[in-house]
Design goal:
The protein is mainly beta. It has a single domain, classed as Beta Barrel (Maltoporin, Chain A). The protein has 5 helices and 42 strands.
Amino acid sequence: MTNLCNAPVYAIKSGLMCATALAGMTFGAPLYAQQLNAGENAQAEESGSNIIIVSARKREESLQEVPLAVTAIDKAALNNSFAQTVADLERFAPNVDLADNAFGAKQLNATIRGVGFADVEKSFEPAIGFSIDGVFLGTSGGASVDVFDLESVEILRGPQGTLYGRNTVGGVINLRRTRPTEDIGARATIRLGNNGREEYLAVANTGRIGAFALKGYFFKTMTDTFSTNLVTGEKDRQKDSISFGGALSFEPSEEFSALLSVDFFDDNSAQGPNYNLSTPDALFCTLSLIPAAFGGPVADSSSGATCIDQSFTVAENSDFTTHIQAIPTASETDGYSVTGSFDWNLNDDLTLTSITGYRESDELLRTDNFGSPLVRLAAAPVDVPIFFATRFVDQQQFSQELRLAGTVGSSLDFVAGLFYMDSEYSLMGGPGPFGQNFGTVFVFGGPSNNFTASQKTTAYAAFADGSYKLTDALTVSAGIRYSYEEKDFDIAFLAGAAAGTASSQTADFDAVTGRVILQYQFTDDVMAFGGWSRGFRSGGFNGRAASVATVGPYDPETVDSFEAGLRMEFFDRSVRFNPTIFYTNYRNKQEEVSRASADGLPETIVQNAASANIWGIELETQANVTDEFTLRGSVGYLNAEYGEFLIPDLANPTGPGIDVSDQRQLRRAPDWTFALGATYTAPVSNNINFIATTDFSFMDSSASNLTRDTSGLGRDIIASVASLDYTIGLQSDNPTGLNWSLTAYVIDATDGRNGRLASTLDVDVFYFGVGAPTTRYGLELGIEF
């Protein structure tokens, strides 16, 4: 029997069969189950649909009773999605745009409802919060987790400035890994696919031994790029990583449980490819074409393959089967994390929870953004890249959260707690493209810029959140959080126009954020809610400044969101329908703007330059048509635009500035996201099931650059993406012995190209983009006992 919560799901928009079946109901977004206790499971079976339990408010609640916009994805859906990283899960939720950052190892670019962050710099705070097993990440580095042993994922849309606090102006992504099991067991999976994809996963559990249980895991993944590098004549390695670790649980009684987990990762990925999108008038493009007689590159076969016509156009005309990149991008990281937590039931009404986390990582980036072959300098017979960047980053983070949750009588439930985090990072340059010299930026093979930067951040917070039943039907929820942060920043310029200068600064920031929500339970199956919430994103310093004058500090930003929705179930709870509307007021918005520095190199400046207004609609639904046939769908609409964007008025430096909001655009804010899918399960024999899924997803075109492209080439816009996905497989169902599964999958079956342009960036002196694969297919074999 297939039920609503255990059906495998992912990207979503199905074919005509699904559209016809859904014609009698409104579209909505996918919903998935997590954990159920015995009483809830019995109630769910009686009603024909499992109850979805989420921890979005840091206590277990039914999704249909939570007055928030939450998409919950369960273990079955994750295992059958064939997602490689968390970035692939954008297909589950409306108005969500996720992507792996090509220049930050295991870093996730995340935008929710038009509010997001897509930069590798550790001094910049992310706009979306990431939590792994309850440990909040201080940066988006490490957030692009491999999807291989996750128990559940929750995507909370909108600011979460009460319970999560740090820099959650756009939302939160909660990741929870599987815990050690009560029984002895193991599972192993092999997945092989196109583009050299190889994945090997093993998880083993000792079962309960007295008060202890132990889990260990190993995961190895490898892929190649989707196109052949015309410079090397081969496909570059894109993914090459190993993760391993374990978890030990301790449960001496029903009142107390503790979990200790240790995880190691070693990622030697290459990323890419990069494409040059520069027009001939771009500075670096012009420099690369200077005749040899004037000191430029030699005009032979090794030069001239620069700018858009000789780089991106080559890839596009080959349907992205080829690309040009002399030195493949290396984006590597290694490190470990330790998490310790406990839950102590003080009595029937109160639970004390402690979560302690420590994480340490080293990152390396070596990239030739220009996307062209090497050029030969006239001054010396040597082939060099036009623009090359290298950076090493060390990062450490320690955090501690202590909270008390419980109930008071039959009307009030609450969570209150304290939070502390201490994080540090340091950045330095490295050897040039061929090991010579030292710096952070190399132009025509020589070090043109070099700097070191470091920052220490200390953050404190106190928070409380609760729900009080005014009547049996009417409930008010309210929360408040006080946040205080202190940052110590140091930067020293060793080369370039600012060589010999340095800056050491300290700044502190604080804010009070919170929310108020009213919800009304019309019937057991229909609930309405509406409310306000505020998020805060800390101010800070510019870790990629090119001079002391552009270090900062810059100020915090705030987001106020007004949201209302319905949570409804029909037909004996076999159909769920959850619509939500929202309006967001984004103030004092921090903008990272690229421009040419004093020495002609690209630099980043940060300004509190803008305000924005965003409103949208989200519809989420899922239905059990029969015991064997499940449908799911989602629609998101987003209207996002700047209200004001001020730049300095050079003619009146003391004036208010010039409003250029009509020339700016919010990045990664597609107007429409849409998903529709179906799952069919049927028994083949007494203990073998046939499972097939069809899913179709669509994401509208969106801006990838802050400034509009005036060339007429549309380089600032990423084209819309539609993906039709299929899986078909067999699974055994032996409750007491060995089980196996064999599944074939195709992701993005109809694109017809090897890849696509996934993001672009204008750095003033040149314009470049990064590619991503389209069609992926393969086989998976799994065994479990």
